[in-house]
Amino acid sequence: MEVERVQAIASSLPSPGAIPAEYIRPEQERPSLTTYCGPVLEVPAVDLGDVDLEGLVRKVADASREWGMFQVVNHGIPAEVIAELQRVGREFFELPAEEKEKYARPPGSRSLEGYGTQLQKDLDGKKSWVDHLFHKIWPPSSVDYRFWPANPPAYRVANKEYANHMRRVADKLFRCLSLGLGLEEDALKNAVGGEDLQYNLKINFYPPCPCPDLTLGVLPHTDLSALTVLVPNEIPGLQVLKDGKWIDVEYVPNALIIHIGDQVEILSNGEYRSVLHRTTVNKEKARMSWPVFLEPPMEWVVGPLPQLLANQEGKDHASGEPPKYKTEKFKDYMYCKLNKLPQ
To answer: Is 202 a catalytic residue?
Structure first.
């Protein structure tokens, strides 16, 4: 059965054109009615190049507890590397439909890799205004080049270069988050797979939408990853839920947006918060984003770290509590999450 892509729907709508009913959200979810418009609240920005490690750790930990999201500048990834990543991704989505379909996610595949439209099951049958390309970029043993476009020709080189830089950023983030919990600096990274940690790149493409106030690019959700490291383009659209309000995330050139994911919330026993976020769309321009989801291997078991829990012999962590989350294989957590089943 032929899959209906949002990009094709957007290009075929009569101007001004109404969007199909399955993309229209209920009033209580529409961005025009639910976006916060009060005094400015800004997602914390952190200088990842700060030589004051203690101060850096405190800023990262505070943002992860209070927001579940922060932006990092001076992260060490050259601007030209990010620009090339964006260029080749944009050019892929400018290709004819039949060229993009060569990389389509196979029907019935348990993997999320490939060109696609819908990832999560929607219990109401609603759809999101977004297409995507999803594939692993690290470690090399996990990479399946069937889903890496050969066109544009520079696509693979650009993604390999970005992956090499991304690993250093990820290591520093995990180090800061571990130290912020009073743990050894390698505790969190080791708890999500160590050197077997999976780096999954997703390119989100949100076509221009004639009725942006009626739909969403991605519905409210938390990421099932440990961390998500996201590159946006200059078109705003990412929103985060803070104190019950949907707040626009300001675009900061060359910054990376960091999301705390479910696995770090579980490992920290709730001290760090997996952030609820969503995306809006634009009437005139295509919005794009390049998140990398840092995830454990499928068979990896994740649960609250014992050294953070109460009644542990020799434990000196002041806020130790009983476990708030169950321990399970990542693949089982992922299956329940994507199929809207209770954990």
So the answer is: yes
Catalytic residue among 131, 135, 172, 223: 223
Q: How many CB atoms lie within 10 A of CB 296?
A: 23
Distance between CA atoms of 214 and 32, rounded to whole angstroms? 8
d(CA 62, CA 271) in angstroms, rounded, equals 10
Which residue type, as a one-letter code, is found at position 203?
I
Catalytic hit among 202, 248, 259, 262: 202
Q: How confident is the model at residue 108 (pLDDT cuts 50, 70, 90)?
A: confident
306: helix, coil or strand? Answer: helix
> pLDDT digits over 253-275, tens only?
999 999 999 999 999 999 999 99
**Active site annotation includes 277:** yes
Structure-derived torsion over alpha carbons of residues 239, 241, 245, 247, reported in degrees to the nearest 10:
-30
Catalytic annotation on 135? no
In the residue annotation, 132 being an active-site residue is answered as: no
Q: Which CATH number fits domain 6-296: 1.10.3210.10, 1.10.600.10, 3.20.20.140, 2.60.120.330?
A: 2.60.120.330
Marked catalytic residue, from 75, 100, 172, 277 = 277
Structural domain boundaries in the chain? 6-296
> What tens digit of pLDDT does each residue of 157-195 get?
999 999 999 999 999 999 999 999 999 999 999 999 999
DSSP per-residue codes, 213-274: GG--SEEEE--SSSEEEEEE-SS--EEEEETTEEEEPPP-TT-EEEEE-HHHHHHTTTSS-P
- Report pLDDT digits (tens) over 127-143: 899 999 999 999 999 99
Which of the residues 102, 126, 165, 221 is marked catalytic?
Answer: 221
